[in-house]
Amino acid sequence: MENKTEKPGIVAEHGLSLYIETGEHRILFDAGASDLFVSNAGKLGVDLSEVDLAVVSHGHYDHTGGFPAFCRINSKAPVFMQRNALRESYGTENGEIEEDPCGILWSDDELKEISSRIIFTDGPLMLTENIYVTGTIPVGEDFLPTEKFYVRERRPGGDTYAEDDMSHEQCLVVREDDGIFIFSGCSHRGVDNAIAACRSIFPGEKVRALVAGMHLYSAGPEARESVVRRVTEEDIDEVFPVHCTGIEGICMLKAAMGDRCHAAAAGSTYEF
Predict the structure, then answer these.
(1) Which sign does the torsion angle of CA 47, 266, 105, 59 carry?
(2) How far apart are CA 17 and CA 33, in angstroms?
(3) What is the pLDDT of residues 50-66, one digit of tens each?
(4) Global pTM?
(5) In what order do the strands lie in the sheet with 131-133?
(6) Residues 164, 166, 172, CA angle at the centre, nearest 5°?
(7) Are strands 26-29 and 18-21 parallel, antiparallel or unpaired?
(8) How many CB atoms lie within 10 A of CB 223?
(9) Is there a contact between 235 and 259 (Cβ–Cβ < 8 Å)?
(10) How far apart are CA 125 and CA 56, in angstroms?
């Protein structure tokens, strides 16, 4: 699932879901905003019941809405989620906190059904010898996000809102014989910090591919140019900017990286 599609019969929505096959495992990374990804999977010949493990990149609806449907189809895969992902999260519009939440929108019954499958993470966690999740991605004191989110704290005397530090965002990193593959949902803590966190798990390994939402659609020109420059300067064979990167960011990366940049869409498949 992705924001756009070029493949007949495949649907798109504002969301992200990736199906990944390694030599030994089948992985679901995020599940889009709804159960629409299930239909896409079927049309692409993907059997979701055979997925071995699932990863939640962060606690926003457009990456988690399809997990209840996935867990009804698949009875075996653990779901790895950073422990702060279930906080009640809100975005902003024109500098004001939005009325509708943008966090995980599972019903109480859905959460109850899924809870036995969830494994909460903090820092880096080894899923297999060659597959890790980063847990919370470290950032420096001078880091500035491209968009702010807020956590609602319900109190008897009145609710309050605190800025969301996005500590619930994590990456998936997979090592193969020829290097590592990095998967980042939205890179709310900075795509360069996400890359650094994955490199620290497998130091010295070549980065074969980065598949990442980079949250540039709402960024200003200077921030967008800075991120594109930093990604371009990284020693990465191939980059797949998706979802919240936005069309301007994707075009800028494509102009800077040429054939090393791929504008992936819902229904796209790649083999390494």
Answers:
(1) positive
(2) 9
(3) 999 999 999 999 999 99
(4) 0.96
(5) 125-128, 131-133, 171-176, 179-184, 207-213, 236-242
(6) 165
(7) antiparallel
(8) 15
(9) no
(10) 13
Start-to-end C-alpha separation, the chain: 20
How many residues would you count in the chain?
272
pLDDT in tens, 89-144: 999 988 899 999 999 999 999 999 999 999 999 999 999 999 999 999 999 878 88
Residue linked to tokens 């109480």: 108
Q: C-alpha angle 119/62/81, rounded to 5°? A: 10
Q: How would you classify the pairing of strands 89-90 and 150-153?
A: antiparallel
CA 128 – CA 89 distance, rounded (Å): 31
Q: Are 54 and 67 in contact (CB under 8 A)?
A: yes
Pair 135, 90: CB distance under 8 Å: no
Element (H, E) at 239: strand 236-242
* Closest CA relative to residue 67, chosen from 115, 26, 24: 115
| Rounded Cα–Cα distance for residues 242 and 199 (Å) | 21
By the 8 A CB rule, do 70 and 50 touch? no
DSSP state of 14: S
| Crossing angle of the two packed helices 246-257 and 221-233, in degrees rounded to 10 | 40
β-strand pairing of 131-133 with 171-176:
antiparallel
**Tokens in use for 140?**
């420096």
- The greatest distance separating any two alpha carbons of the chain, rounded to the nearest whole angstrom, comes to 57
Alpha carbon separation from 113 to 28, 86, 110, 164 (Å, rounded): 18, 15, 5, 27
